[in-house]
Automatic annotation (TrEMBL), chains A, B:
Protein name as annotated: GntR family transcriptional regulator
Coiled coil start-end: none
HTH gntR-type domain segment(s): 19-87
Family annotation (SUPFAM superfamilies): Chorismate lyase-like, Winged helix' DNA-binding domain
Organism expressing this protein natively: Curvibacter cyanobacteriorum
Amino acid sequence: MKHPSLSLATEAAHALPGQSRYGALAATLRHRVVAGEWPPGTALPAEQLLAAEHGVALGTLRRALELLAEQGLIERVHGKGTFVRQGIAGASMLRFFRFGDSAGQVPDSRILSRQTVPASATVARALGLAPGEPVLRLQRLRLIDAQPCLLEDLCLPLDLFAPLVDGDPADWDALLYPMYARRCGVHVQRAIDDIGFGLLSAPQAQPLGLAAGHPAAVVTRLAYDLSGRCVEWRCTRGDAHAFHYTVTLT
Amino acid sequence: MKHPSLSLATEAAHALPGQSRYGALAATLRHRVVAGEWPPGTALPAEQLLAAEHGVALGTLRRALELLAEQGLIERVHGKGTFVRQGIAGASMLRFFRFGDSAGQVPDSRILSRQTVPASATVARALGLAPGEPVLRLQRLRLIDAQPCLLEDLCLPLDLFAPLVDGDPADWDALLYPMYARRCGVHVQRAIDDIGFGLLSAPQAQPLGLAAGHPAAVVTRLAYDLSGRCVEWRCTRGDAHAFHYTVTLT
């Protein structure tokens, strides 16, 4: 599947004046991945073949591949070759929280609402839309052992996620990213989580079984696809007392 | 300066049965750094010299240096050589908080109390002491533009930090780690910060100018010196609403 806006973005990167040869080659290879020539999980052709095909030295090709690996598009598996990354599998919110004995569990998912709504200014800016353009908005509750633990607000651009507008969300998977890939051809490759704190409003507190005004950890996520386009805005709230995260400084 | 306990620790590492040759060499080199032979910030001798001195192949020496670089003890500067790392400079707590327009500012420091107290079970375990052994306990307030922003509890092992037991803390630097290095010969090389949340007790809230029960981000830090010994336990509290932290997932 080829998205016109994505092709434009990568063509533009390809044409940057003053760009190095390996940088231009990396943009071209990214373009081929985004266009679906090598789907996520598949191996790229041998380095010698790719270098010959693009008329560059092997060293130039290798620098381009290093750049794409740094950017998270591909991964080089020692002795096996170079693969297009599968993307983020999901369940990653749980690295910020500890709910009882839940380590390693995938939380259940319950879609509380699904609407097509005009994008707020914040969401429009994140998704690269004009304010007021329609987005698919989901409210989702995540549960562990039938106990509500996280409340999520998601906004998705309609042009990519049309297959999710109809049908029964009760049939959806507990993990969204593999479902985005299967149903919509969208592969989430990178996410930036911004952690902050807030107090729950009454409508936010109720599904979580907490009192209005209860302190919450608030994780605002921007998720990006293969082409670097922001494809998901997500705001996740959970009991602040269940929040834990470890950072090493050297 | 040579600390007997550190030497023992590194000798033990050196003698591990089944250890690889480069692993044993890395332990020996770490021992020489800890003993003060190459102070932080100085360059190690040339690789050929070091390899000859230890009677190993250049490849073995390089693997040992790679291991020490991964562990954060040294850094290899392309074209310049291999240096003992200076350690963490300080001011790092502010990467978790945003107080107004404070980016890049070093907060002022006010020591509220300094006592020699028996270590709690938690602190003793962190610092490798027996519960009840005495530690130097500091309570410190950090201020930006004269506004209190962070309250810190610190516990330090007395054998390393004796020079801080006497003298006027008003003369201390705003950044502790450079002062630990200068006054006590302790170089903090690595810190692990565990972020959680809590509500401020009345004695915690008062110096911060907040109400008892106010939500707080609580950062519990274990800081390690060159030898890998935990030399500081620290618990920092600040207004949860000022907490922000960004994490990228790929």
